[in-house]
Amino acid sequence: MGRISASMDSLGRMVIRNIEETGKILILFLSVLSWMIRPPLKLRHIFKQMEFVGVKSIFVVILTGTFTGMVMALQGYYGFRMFSAESLVGSTVALGMTRELGPVLTSLMVTARAGSAMAAELGTMRVTEQIDALYVMAVNPVKHLIVPRVIAGVIMVPALTIVSDFMGILGGYFVGVQILNINEGAFVKNITKMVDLNDIFNGLIKAAFFGLILSLVGCYKGFNTTGGAEGVGKATTEAVVLASVSILISDYFLTAIMF
Amino acid sequence: MSDRVGMISLIDVHKSFGTQKVLDGLNLEIEAGKTTVIIGRSGGGKSVLLKHIIGLLKPDSGQIIVDGDDISRMNDRHLNEVRKKFGMLFQEAALFDSMNVGENVAFPLREHTKKKDGEIRHIVRERLKAVGLAGVEAKMPSELSGGMRKRVGLARAIAMQPAIVLFDEPTTGLDPIMTEAVNELIINTQRNFDLTCVVISHDVQSIFKVGHKIAMLYEGQIVEQGTPDEIGASKNPVLNQFLAGDLDGPISVL
What we know:
The complex is a heterodimer. Helix content of chain A is 86%, strand content 0%. Chain A is an all-alpha fold.
């Protein structure tokens, strides 16, 4: 009996902690919004973050996008061959990439690369008192540190998603047409027939939302770091896990709403 | 009382973290244009006290009055205006490690003034010269020794010509010679820029050199204060045990 109530106790505590954390992240989001509309906005900081989040992630995004498209074509081919519908491989790859895998894989890669770095950098600034130093110099750290990162996330993740979508379809084309000898005309025609512009747009809206999640979570975890080097490591891990899980869960709900 | 800028009064300040009382009805007057040293044990609430003076922490109750304004009940915008009177040297200097030394010292100027680049560069050079580090603008903080980082931290703290500079254990972790150099630096900077300085420290030798006034923080209150001579002659058992570094006395070690 004692064991059951103890485990209920810890379950309840966990639920409360998670709700509390969600609330705190939302409060941070509101504070980011309110600082975003207050001039001056330092473009230099924003561009620096856009370069870090976006430009420097291009290579991994190209790599993951291409190979995802390639493997989808390969897997799709084995399935469609059973009822001689190989020409649908292209549209399957294109729909899968634009609606789902482009946005999700891109944001997961950016979470691993940039979301973790945000948590680690802000966490280190917190434990070495650099964030206190900002307050002391009458500079608001949310405006100075978090606003540029969130803007960069929201703009650059969709931009990278476009690259990922394109490379995925290209990879699918390469495997489907060049290696598996699917008829090129049918392959391309099915893509243009089945993929609507809305598929791409909705995917990009998702990507913008995921970019918001990963930058906000990374900044939140870093900003609230306690406990020295160990704390920075913990904040980084938690940021990646929480952002990844939130991206995958919100993906389901966004999809249910949009498509 | 003089009405020059840089006067700070703490009145009946209470602060607890959870069940732990850190400040327990603390009262302290900090005179303008003088150096006040606050001594006390490690973990005894000195840093907490310093963070209250600049509004990084808010008291549970009590008032913190800077030049007539109570900062404990101020909104952020007001507080930021008051903070422009302050500079602070952090224990590990807290330089921004994404920027070089020159950019660090220039940072408050870039954020709060509309000065031209050339003018800012000039001020940065002057401030670095004032702390004895001319010509290191292009170095990154990670390339500097602990003592140099503190000097750069001080140059940044005085970049905006504040009225008040706070020092968080300026000599902790430095060798005896560098300790002496930093003490000299505090004394000279205080005199040259006519500052109100608040230094927290547990380095017994340094406090008598830099302090015009010394205050002992113990169990959340100021138990003794006075000029270095008065402190040296004090019969307060807590103070005497602290200064002598005795294991026996009213302060329990464990």
